[in-house]
Amino acid sequence: MISVGESIEILKSNIQTLGIEKRDLIDSIGCVLASDVLAKVNVPSFNNSAMDGYAICFESERTDYQVKYNIQAGDTHVYTLNENEAARIYTGAPVPKNTNAVIQQEIVSVNGSNISFDPEKVKLGMNIRTLGSQCFENQIIASQGVLVTPAILGLLASAGVFEVEVYKMPKVSVIITGNELQKPNHELEFGQIYNSNEFALVGLLKSLGIAQIKTYQVIDELTEVEKTIQTALAESDFLILTGGVSVGDYDFVKHALENNQVNTLLYKVKQKPGKPLFVGKKQDKWIFALPGNPAAVITCFNQYVKPCLLAIVGNENTFEPIAVLPLKNTFKKPTGLTFFVKGKYDYQGVEILQGQESFNLLSFNVANCIVKIEDNIESLEIGSLVEVYPLD
Ligand code: AMP
Ligand code: MG
After folding, report:
1. Which of 2, 61, 236, 365 has the highest count of CB atoms within 10 angstroms of its CB?
2. Distance CA 61, CA 72 (A)
3. What does the DSSP 8-state code read for residue 52?
4. Residue 320 pLDDT > 90, yes or no?
5. pTM, two decimal places
6. pLDDT tens digits, residue range 364-373?
7. 169 alpha carbon to ligand 2 midpoint, in Å?
8. Whose Cα sits closest to atom 15 in ligand 1?
9. What b/e sequence results for 107-121 when a residue is b if at least 16 CB atoms lie within 10 Å of its CB, and e otherwise?
């Protein structure tokens, strides 16, 4: 058996990205930028109004201006203001040449085609968004290593970027083992259970932005498991199995992986849940064999599979907790194993939930994190600091 800390170090030392690809901007959500992105244009590319109001060429003595133009957002004309002239203008519309202030309409009195206002309220440059005030053409606006979020999509689109270089996303296969499994839209026969791991795993992968996912289901039979592993490995960069990796007479996964020339990186971790966890590699392909117990599957995915997947697509610090928070309740456990327990955290602290058995999924109804409790700890008091790993 190997400790949690040693296991994580082994995984970290094996991380390699899968290379780089170009993607249309809209398809890059959830990917990590593989190169710096430069603005294609100045943003804004023309001086424009930040308000609905009046563009003026302000002279400190003057209180009255004549409204000569009406300029809407999208107007492509170039207008020029002369002395004592103003233009009715709207948010986002280009300001005329010689404009040195836009007066918001709320402080303007309109009298026919003339306007007046209190000159004390005018500051030169007010309510004008100047050319390049967000960024200039060829300026770096998003750096290599940045995760493409919806806000980054908006930023890049605002500067005319329509294609980006990102780290490749893996093709992932999931193999579900177990003779007892039934699909949720079928009636259960005595001795059967619903196949919940497939739903949990596919959902977890999709939530990481992985689009290419294949699932296989196989009975507990060595040659069948072996064949399915062979097929799945040929089609994917990353393979996840559930069930059949423990020490029972019908647990064939470890043996079937070895028969497929998968090299062991680690097997059997000093942890609860998820003791039988196996991680291996075949050339550059990753293989994670998770236990069958559904809560162990979600926990092992969160603590091992997710950080690995996020790291190979270019993210940094993926194995780190999101926070170290004070406990809201007490907790007792034997020493020797690291415990990963379902918890609910907020900005004040974290509560360890009831129902920690590895077959029991019900506490995920309220859980939003996994709390790590080190192997040497026997009991924790209220206020003890613990590492918190989010479940989303
Ligand atoms: P195993 O690791 O194959 O011995 O399975 C451990 C426990 O997890 C058993 O109670 C299995 O019935 C259960 N289990 C295995 N696979 C699944 C699955 N896909 N969905 C739900 N429970 C499962
Ligand atoms: Mg099984």
Report:
1. 236
2. 28
3. S
4. yes
5. 0.94
6. 999 999 999 9
7. 30
8. 292
9. ebeeeeeebebeeee
